[in-house]
């Protein structure tokens, strides 16, 4: 239940998506991202679509809840393609969405599939010009002989229309599958990372990108490690990190050399010999890396844990949080059914109004539609469930507990009863408020803290 | 799926299988360690070759599975070579980390050897300019130079040779599961078919290094396709064998029985621990005469049907 006064009590707010259990493959959510103000929430799915939700402006009469999120725009970002050379399909699945900070009335986001990144402009149209001289309202040309006077077209209100248009297409720069995109703090450049390379782009230039990391060996038979995630530092525009399948994180400075194959720092925790197994390498593979708001720390997610690193200390993390340690004895089965390769993401809390720029809470997903939160200050953690059964607004979510072994208490769930098909890989935290978006396979849940 | 009733039995027994990692030197638990290792090895092979996805398989997954297979091969090799000195050797020197990493110097030393086509390198030094990503798309530099580069730029440490051997020994282990004549015929047919594509390896019968070489030759021809996942296609463990050769050859069911603890009594009598000596013996497919089938494993047709059902259904 609720701990001290600082613990957040999460309540169900909304759920988006189909109700039936039969999940259409194309509806599987593959990425979730709030924009910089938190007003917009974007999701990408396996069918290449992007759906953007917009938060209603706060209703003064309903002071006990924040605005709801409603569909704002839906568009097809990527289409499936066929690589004729390799006789293989290129999936249209959206791997990542990243918002640009808003500069004018329009919103911009980058979305990427395995091969191509696109810059989308989302703009509103709520007026249209009427009163053309040569055209009727429906577009047909007027008979010139009927034109007897000149008039100036005027803008008249119309129903709000939200349009998404692709403004840039950044293609043909990745031989391998893109896993990350990250916008630089200069807001002019961004990086894209695939399994073996990281490229630097300018947002205005689509026909050229520059390779800044290349770990492809001359002989592919020698390949034993791949890049799994990459991110720019939030403040230092020449610094970025990338993680690997061997559990290492490398911090690179682009000022040091054009090709950043030599890292400035290498973060790696020595292996715990008591925990060694056949699967040690696989579970050490990092699936996500996120800088803290200040940039002093970064967080990594591997299969069983979340680790917080101080950028000034390379030889071990400063904190480690176990997400689902009870799976350690099940690794062989999880290897067999491929679950061990699931890529869980992690995220920080937003900048709380009271404690600006402090990254205090970590959120990440697990199986059985569970997700976990770790409070760095109190060292308390909680397991919550995203399920339609708890869908009464303002009902506080009940903490869940998994029973690893021995006698199962009431309300606990045994490890063997967990549904490994129900995985929460993607979660996002509103940048300013305590609102979280949690994606199950094909549903998006929105939870808010209980406001009193 | 894990968690549903059907799998419960497996999970219960599995606790004994993977609850704790047992040291390979313990007496009775050495068998279960070997069983566990063998199971994981088989699962890994199945993963690499069992499905034909329409889209490219994940390189990360492929690399991790390959690493798993190589690690097990290394262990088997070291166990095989340590056999005569079993008492003194105790635990092989940490096959899971240092040896394994030493074998792959390429990753950490990429800064030194030039990765770009020779003409680009000659015009300006690597360090002083950004590389347009478009140049990286032309992956031809990793074709024929690849084999020669191993010599001058990176003298391979002894461990690297062990890795190359691991491919041949992994292949051999597969061979051991199949009766030699059948696979020899199959391989002869495959080799004949591949003659136009790869250099025949009959001259390298007795050198394990010969196998990776012919494989590299084949990978050379596949490399011009940008981004071809050479790992799964050509550098995998089964270049000249198809999955059919394994499936339809005589195999002991106990290898594919994912319930090793219940069948331990039956399996133990049938299975011999795989040793490097036996692996080397079964370089048979590349020799002209059929080797006396080393066949501790026999299987009924009904069991074969059952396995096919399981594999196709999974």
In the CATH hierarchy, what is the class of chain A?
Answer: Mainly Beta
Distance N to C terminus of chain A: 17 Å
Proportion of residues in helical segments of chain B? 40-55%
Radius of gyration of chain A: 24 Å
Percentage of residues in DSSP E strands of chain B: under 5%
- The number of helical segments of chain A is 2
- Give start-end ranges of low-pLDDT stretches of chain A: 1-5
Give the structural class of chain B. Answer: mainly alpha
Domain SERTA (chain B): 33-80
Organism (chain B): Daphoenositta chrysoptera (varied sittella)
InterPro entries (chain B): E2F-SERTA_domain_protein, SERTA_dom
Biased composition (Low complexity) (chain B): 182-191
Describe the structure in your own words.
The complex is a heterodimer of chains A (452) and B (314). Chain A has 452 residues and is mainly beta. Chain A has one domain (10-140, 151-449): Methylamine Dehydrogenase, Chain H (7 Propeller). Chain A has 2 helices and 32 strands. Chain A is globular and about 90 Å long. Mean pLDDT of chain A is 92; it is low at 1-5. Chain B is built from 17 helices and 1 strand. In chain B, helix 2 runs antiparallel to helix 3 and helix 3 (59-82) crosses helix 9. The longest helix of chain B is centred in the N-terminal third of the chain and has 24 residues, at 59-82. The model of chain B is unreliable at 1-26, 84-127, 139-165, 179-246 and 257-297 (pLDDT under 50). Chains A and B meet through strand 7, strand 14, strand 15, helix 1 and helix 2 of A and helix 1, helix 2, helix 3, strand 1 and helix 7 of B.
